[in-house]
Design goal:
Helix Hairpins; DNA polymerase, domain 1; 26 strands; 36% helix; disordered N terminus; binds 2-(butylsulfanyl)adenosine
Length: 746
């Protein structure tokens, strides 16, 4: 009987057509993914098709079919391997994309079980391929892929060749049993393997042989490696396994809970999924799922979510299975990191060292919860290796905070296109206006009639052993702009308020040319106030009066403050090639002053542990340049601290030792890094995420998810006033903590 009695014939006809189309599409994508290891669409696009089909089948039950992809798993085994029937069907998992869906899953289970409380287990959901291993008298006798869930491919010889999968078990395992797990390729192994294939391809190309295809991601690489005809090839691949389930077991008692089962299997030497956790309730499990999202990139393997399982195996049996999914487990899916979109244009920008960096202007698409419009393309070799062209549909990937990358083109969707060429002259400009009329600006032109930005136009070239092309003009407007941005950035001199736009304006007005000029700005505030947008304009008696307002006063304060950033930050700010914060600190500690570093012989620099010959060479080259010398000298004359302040006497007081703070949102009177540095100097630890180990959260304006998390953990949340007061008088922080302790009086 139809649950949707009002569905008209016309609706049903349209729905049937769509359902058939979706089924055909999903089956085709299943084949590409599971059998050919060559997916054509991203996981998120696949999930969207799948969800749409599920929704239609629920709304129109008359269209249900046992062989719909929503009722079956994976794809039928291919023809390369013998077929193995699974004694117990290998299932798939339902998905939860947010907290509501996870809680609804728990509620459905609670209604069926007629109870409210039980324990859960959470495990990383490893993105690899499912494998069933049968052990007889402790020896691996059969390994099979999941296939369509009922029958898979016999890959025993290949899995026996993988070192990390035990061929023989320890201890006293049951006489005959099957375990299930996910075979995966660690991310580092994947990168190394693809790099090897790329190197091989260069040789093949030289010999006129066809190139081998690179693997799209670690999952495909694992699947491709397991399904090799020659086991020695599988053996050469960096593969591992995470066992997540006991399939079946003959003639031996087995534990009553999933948690204990994993411990029991580990005793026989089976590598069970790492970082499994047990939870008293769903709220705790949910907090773990949310926390995992922040840590997914730190794992050695690719994770696409967290599996939440009912721990008690009797309860699992009571809950049973619906369709192809157990009711006792669900996959909490992370927001997708991959999506496909179109490369509208390939453009370049100029880095502070003069490198010409290609990037893709994309048709906007949402990935990992944010809209992405641009993605890096690294360099020409990378563009050629991946074969990316304007107009291509491409898969892009955004992992964590990292800049989005173009992973690969979808060649099936390529129309006529030509290879992209690197521009022969530098397009560097200070303009940067998207609507500028300057034909060299690279933006959509049209609005501004006259571009006020300078344009470089110098020849671009690269050395034989370099992957990057460089602009040949050291006064290239883009290089000057980037060098100033770098000098003022957080990791260097941290001059609050001096960002890209203001630097652009000051350059255009001729107010600065290099970092040393920045320190002359505080003495020129009245003149700067006359630049539109910088000062405060008051109209008196029909005349415009320009006053130094808060913006300029704060800027002057930030510039003065930056003089005390210290030698290591100054070194970073100079932008010497290869000198980052870590080796700048090592150099500052070793030599103590800027002069000593710039005058040190190459060997002395290279001898510093962690510095080495390449960085030493780069420092010497920098110091040999007259313009650089003069810059260093002018910074010193401006009073920028260029020596390590070694304070003799009593050790610094650390009254906040043992406390751990998180700072979030915007603060007005102090920057976050400044506040964090001061808290650290007082002995406190600083965390990047809120957890139960956090002492308190300092929340500025527009604090978002961290504030919510702190609220849910009932942590003290303090505003900017408290931050400033606390830094001035740390003892008060201890008082506030004592106040916020729950009272025992009642
Ligand atoms: S439990 C009833 N635990 O995810 C199925 N699966 O999307 C029991 N997977 O087919 C699966 N890590 O291949 C489970 N810790 C984990 C997992 C995991 C990865 C895979 C597995 C499964 C697929 C479902």
């Amino acid at each position: 009987m139809s649950t949707l009695s009002v569905s008209s014939d016309a609706e049903l006809i349209i729905a049937r057509e769509r359902v058939e189309l979706l089924r055909a599409e999903i089956t085709r994508h299943n084949h590409r993914y599971y059998v050919l290891d060559a997916p054509e669409i991203s996981d998120a696009e696949y999930d969207a098709l799948f969800r749409e089909l599920k929704r239609l089948e629920t709304a129109f039950p008359e269209l249900a079919s046992a062989d719909s992809p929503t009722q079956t798993v994976g794809a039928a085994p291919g023809r390369t391997f013998a077929v193995v029937e699974h004694r117990l069907r290998m299932l798939s998992l339902g998905n939860a994309f947010n907290a509501e869906e996870l809680l609804a899953w728990r509620q459905r289970a609670a209604d069926l079980l007629d109870r409210e409380e039980w324990t859960f287990v959470t495990e990383p959901k490893i993105d690899g391929l499912a494998i069933a291993l049968v052990y007889e008298r402790g020896c691996l006798v059969r390994a099979a892929t999941r296939g369509d869930g009922r029958a898979g491919e016999d890959v025993t010889a290949n899995l026996r060749a993988i070192d990390s999968i035990p061929n023989e078990l320890w201890g006293n395992p049951p006489p005959l049993f099957e375990v299930r797990g996910e075979v995966y390729m660690p991310k580092a192994g994947f990168d190394a393997m693809n790099a090897n294939i790329a190197a091989l391809n260069e040789e093949r190309q030289a010999e006129g042989r066809a190139a081998l295809t690179l693997y799209a991601n670690p999952r495909n690489a694992a699947a491709g490696s397991v399904r090799q005809k020659d086991p020695s090839v599988t053996a050469s691949r960096p593969l591992n396994i995470g066992i997540y389930q006991l399939g079946w077991c003959d003639d031996a008692p087995t534990p009553d809970s999933h948690w204990e089962t994993l411990g029991w299997l580990a005793e026989f030497g089976l590598p069970t999924t790492p970082e499994v956790a047990r939870h008293d309730g769903i709220d705790d499990a949910l907090a773990t799922c949310e926390a995992w999202n922040q840590r997914r990139d730190a794992q050695v393997f690719e994770m696409d979510g967290v599996v939440v399982k009912v721990d008690d195996l009797n309860l699992q049996a009571d809950l049973g299975i619906v369709g192809r999914e157990p009711r006792w487990a669900i996959a909490w899916k992370f927001p997708p990191q991959e999506a496909s979109t179109v490369v509208e244009q390939i453009l370049v920008n100029v880095g502070r060292t003069g490198s010409i960096n290609p990037y893709a202007r994309l048709r906007p698409v949402r990935v990992g919860g944010v809209e992405v419009k641009n993605a890096t393309l690294h360099n020409l070799d990378d563009i050629r290796r991946k074969d990316i062209r304007e107009g291509d549909t491409v898969v892009i990937r955004r992992a964590g905070e990292v800049i989005p990358q173009v992973v690969r083109p979808v060649l099936e969707r390529r129309k006529d296109s030509a290879e992209w060429e690197m521009p022969s002259v530098c397009p560097g400009t200070t303009c940067g206006e998207l609507d500028c009329a300057n034909e060299h600006c690279g933006g959509d032109r049209g609005r501004l009639d006259i571009c006020e930005g300078a344009w470089c136009g110098a020849p671009v070239s690269r050395q034989d052993d370099d992957v990057d092309f460089y602009c040949s003009n050291r006064h290239c407007p883009a290089i000057v702009q980037r060098a100033l941005e770098h000098f003022a950035s957080r990791g260097a001199m941290d001059i609050r308020g001096l960002g890209e736009k203001l630097i652009k304006l000051l350059l255009r007005e001729g107010a600065i040319r290099d970092p040393a000029d920045i320190y002359t700005l505080p003495d020129r505030l009245e003149a700067l106030a006359r630049i539109p947008g910088l000062g405060q304009v008051k109209r008196r008696k029909g005349e415009d009066l320009y006053e130094v307002g808060d913006r300029l006063r704060n800027l002057a304060e930030a510039i003065r403050w930056s003089k005390t950033r210290g030698l290591a930050h100054l070194l970073v700010g100079l932008g010497i090639r290869h000198v980052g914060s870590e080796n700048a600190t090592l150099l500052a500690d070793e030599f103590g002053s800027l002069d000593a570093i710039l005058l040190a012989p190459r060997e002395a620099l290279a001898a510093v542990e962690g510095v080495g010959p390449i960085i030493a060479e780069s420092i010497v080259d920098w110091a040999l340049d007259g313009e650089n010398w003069s810059l260093a000298h002018r910074l010193q004359t401006a009073g920028v601290e260029d020596e390590i302040q070694r304070v003799a006497g009593a050790p610094a007081e650390t009254p906040l030792e043992g406390l751990r703070f998180v700072l979030t949102g915007r603060f007005g009177a102090i920057t976050r890094p400044q506040a964090e540095a001061q808290l650290k100097a007082l002995g406190a630890g600083i965390g990047s995420s809120v957890s139960k180990n956090t002492t308190a959260l300092f929340a500025g304006e527009a604090a978002g998810s961290k504030r919510k998390k702190a609220e849910s953990l009932k942590l003290p949340i303090w505003d900017e006033h408290r931050l400033i007061d606390g830094l001035a008088n740390p003892a008060t922080i201890l008082d506030w903590l004592a106040e916020s302790e729950p009272s025992n009086a009642d």
